[in-house]
């Protein structure tokens, strides 16, 4: 179970790293689009397309990382409650002797 959780965490961290890199690429496009008087309509369309493409990939990674995060939390909670139960059962068996 622990290996599985570690794999999920590694995958999540990888996604967040990729999201970070995509965000770094997004920033100059954001800046250029906000300063639209310096660009023509054709260039703006091109920038917006590129921006949207990067943004979509960024959002997808953030979303997937978020889902993995929830899955990790559920698994960890489950493992904790299972080991808690095992502890209780062991304690009760000790009392019986």
UniProtKB/TrEMBL annotation:
<protein>
    <recommendedName>
        <fullName>Chromosome segregation SMC protein</fullName>
    </recommendedName>
</protein>
């Amino acid at each position: 179970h622990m290996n599985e959780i570690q794999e999920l965490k590694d995958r999540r961290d990888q996604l967040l790293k990729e999201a970070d890199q995509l965000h770094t690429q997004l920033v100059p496009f954001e800046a250029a689009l906000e300063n639209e008087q310096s660009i023509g309509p054709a260039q703006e369309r091109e920038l917006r397309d590129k921006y949207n493409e990067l943004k979509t990939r960024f959002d997808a990674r953030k979303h997937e990382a978020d889902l993995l995060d929830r899955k990790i939390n559920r698994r960890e909670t489950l493992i904790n409650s299972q080991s808690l139960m095992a502890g209780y059962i062991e304690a009760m068996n000790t009392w019986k002797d």
